[in-house]
Amino acid sequence: MTMTKIAFFDAHSYDRDSFEMWNKDFGFDIHYYKERLSMNSIELTKGKEIVCVFVNDEISAQVIDALVKNGVKLVALRCAGFNNVDLPEAKGKLRVVRVPAYSPHAVAEYAVTLMLSLNRKVYRSTQRTREGNFRLSGLLGFDMYGKTAGIVGMGRIAKVLVNILKGFGMNILAYDKFPDMKWAKENGVKMVDLPELYANSDVISLHCPLTHETLHMIDKDAIDMMKPGVMIINTGRGKLIRTEDLIQGLRSHKVGSAGLDVYEEEAKFFYEDHSDRMINDDHLALLLMMPNVIVTSHQAFFTREALQNIATTTLQNCKDFLDGKELVNEVMAK
Ligand code: NAI
Questions:
Q1: Which domain holds residue 315?
Q2: Is 333 within the bounds of a domain?
Q3: How much is the pTM?
Q4: Closest ligand 1 atom to Cα of 213
Q5: How far apart are CA 172 and CA 202, in angstroms?
Q6: What residue owns the CA closest to ligand 1's atom 12?
Q7: Where are the beta strands (DSSP E) in 159-305?
């Protein structure tokens, strides 16, 4: 029996380790490529029935037509977000599956990691003490207790986050386009509109998907409505924030700090080592220099448990497709 071939793009050693381990239970013939899927790498999909992609692969209309021509039938996203797939174009040509929830805990805990690191300036104090500087000036933080967190998008990740933040004794405001009022009431969360959330939150954390509505939702107008010194955390998608306006907000001190695990133009940099060259992106270079900003490389998901769930769910999605079963994790254009 010939094994079904999977072209696996943007593969790193940790992906390979995890997928190889769990693929023992499935037996796919996985071809790992370090390239991202785009028209430049499309040749690699020839003879493969399935492509497995991540957050920065580009599944545009042109790529979809080329995939179909090469015999690909399934796009298996090994992530939750699917903003990088042209779903209307894929309709009727290719099926698309994803991993809807590999570990909401991983991302929620990471959002809190960014909040606490920024607030208590752990990265600055670590650098200082390594140099033998044990002074405290410049390291002043605030109690999380009694402050207000504003959560945008009250889905799986945000619900875990709310329970962690409530443990600190924070007040929670939230906005969701499709609010779960029952959950909010049971968990002491006040659902509000965005202007009210912006005006009253000390910390704002973004957990909604990137859509045409949420693109650049954090722009100058939104920042103008916020409390002076607000902390903004983004573990959602880079394009939720208009970076230029965030930088302006940081410069004017309207925004006190920002923790960014995602960045508008991350596809050019994230997951690769650029330490031997200039960062050829003025906005990113500026953010990296600011003492009140933390930029990390889309790593909020990166825990052992999440990697296991990503591998097993992705491989099960592929098996269900081949077995002609219902695809419970399918995404398609409405
Ligand atoms: P989810 O689907 O459970 O929750 C998303 C929530 O956003 C839903 O409650 C939905 O009603 C709401 N929403 C939809 N449109 C909205 C709008 N226009 N305005 C406000 N709210 C809106 O998703 P989950 O699992 O909580 O993930 C949230 C996002 O986090 C994903 O879409 C993805 O972009 C990002 N993510 C980032 C990761 C990382 O490693 N940094 C890892 C996993 C997800």
A1: 5-102+303-322
A2: no
A3: 0.93
A4: 18
A5: 10
A6: 153
A7: 171-175, 190-191, 203-206, 230-234, 255-260, 293-295
